[in-house]
Design brief:
The chain is built from eleven helices and seven strands. With 262 residues, it is an alpha+beta fold. Strands 2-4-3-1-5-6-7 form a seven-stranded mixed β-sheet, sandwiched between helices. Strand 3 (173-177) and strand 4 (180-186) form a beta hairpin. It starts with a helix and ends with a helix. 24% of the residues are buried.
Length: 262
Amino acid sequence: MAEIAKIIQTYWNAYLSNIVDIAATAVLIYLIFTLLKETRAIPILKGIFILLGLTIASRLLKLGTLSWILSGAWVIGVIAVVIVFQPELRFLLAKLGSGKVAGFLFRIKPDWIEAIIETLKEAREKSWGALIVIQLNIGLKNYIETGVKIEGAVSSEILISIFNPTSPLHDGAVIIKGDKILAAGCILPLTMEEIASRILGTRHRAAIGISEVSDAWAIVLSEETSSISLARGGKLARNISVEELRKELIALYREKEFEAAK
């Protein structure tokens, strides 16, 4: 046993420790970039990498003046980065202090997102239509009151039962906030945009309409073509894949988590 332990120790010191060190560092960097994706930190980090490359190049090429200037820039840059990254650093520290770092980093598919994805998959297989609205910062009380209040957890079973053509609520929209279904069978405003009015059906026009009067996102599953569309900011992205929609919803989730931590 002593010999085996010695061999393992030798290999660990010579090879394995370096491999584990590199792998752990790579994973850490990847997770940080994933966490800060689509925030202002990414462009700043790109600038830092460019500055680092210039610093290394100036020293290799023995460009004394440029190297001296860049060295001074790093001293100021460290302080500037702390100031500029203050919201992001506070966000990361808040997650660390709450003991939810691992859960936040690895739970990239919240339950409500997967419930929506599973609903769309099943409804598409059955050639059903669907209209799901995700409420964000602007309240949708006026439209919630046009439907039937649910106030239940988001689940694919409930959503599928709502969009079943035999359900009295299937023609309206389901409004979701966070992981809660607020209401179903809701009537939404239709867009008055001329081209959309001519070529799109009621669900798609309603999806665009609600995204024009609020910051809500609206997901449409076409009953005729079984295609998925996403409306936001008055614009409609048509024929997107389930995986593209999942990525968009995950990005939205991360953005809202980031804002909540500020």
